[in-house]
Structures are given as structure tokens and as C-alpha cells.
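Per reviewer request, we include the raw input and output of the structure prediction for the construct analysed in the revised manuscript.
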Amino acid sequence: MKFRLGSGCGMRPHGNPGGAASKGQTSMIAIAIAVVMLVLIMIFMLSSALSSQAGQSTRSEYRNLFAHNALISVLRTDTECGILSDVLKGGYFGGGRCDSRKFVESRIPAYMGLLLNATGHTDYEWFLEASPMNFRGEVLAIGSAAVKEAAERWDARTIVTWEGYQLEVKLYFKIK
């Protein structure tokens, strides 16, 4: 048995080919495609708006994280007088190998300069403040005090403890 192409089997589609029903289906498909395109455009615009807001939030989170890491790095710096947080405690609570208060006041600016240069943040100004929490003592303030009062600034805070005494250490940053 041989089949010939194009011989036609005599089968024809039912209904009205090329009539009003197929034009209606085409119109419905076009409308559905237009609605899908509008929805996709709206989703894109909404995600763009949210990502630009998230960018601002991410920048702020980065700066706060930088401030916290900088504070921890400075306090953990090892010097000829010991770890800087221990030297700082010595300035308030006595002890230590050096004149702790003068040592801290002279060394922290150098360490902050090195840190900002190493991280590429040379456009940042900083201010460090150490204040007693549960005992009497004077506040240690190093750096530019204007940074603490700046409207757009970020900061980090930690507590250094020694035998039940607490010393609050804050580090503030702002862009010059």
C-alpha cells in the first residue's frame, strides 16, 4: 500500500475556518499577552523601586558594620603595653605596664589612621569616647568631637569590663 502526499483524505476542520470565532480567539490571546506584559512591567518597576531602597539600607548596614569592626580591631590591637582594651582599662582602673591614659590618647589616632588608610576610607572622620558606666571617672574623648554631633553619622558601642566595673566605649564615624 502506497501513500501519496497531498492526496487529501477528505478531512476538513469542522466549524467556520477563518470566520468570526477564530478572530475572537486571536483577540483574546492578544489581550492576554498585553495583560501579562503589563504585569511583568509592573513587577519590574516595583522590584527596581525596592532594590534602590534596599541599596540605601545596605549602605547604612555596611557603615554600621564597618564602625563595629573598626572598634573591635582598635581595641584588640596588640601594643608594647599590651592589648589596647587592657591598656584602656589600666587608664581607668590602674595597673598596666605604661602610663595608660597618655598611651591610649597618643596611639589611637595613629591606629585609626592606619585602619582608615588600609580599608580605603580616608574620607571618614572619627571620634572615640570611653566613659565609665557604674563608677566615677572622667570621659576619655579622642578625635573630632563634631563627628558625634553630626546629623549623618554611624557608630559602634561595646562595653569593656573589669572586676565588675564597666567602661562604655563608642566609636563614631562620618564622611568628611
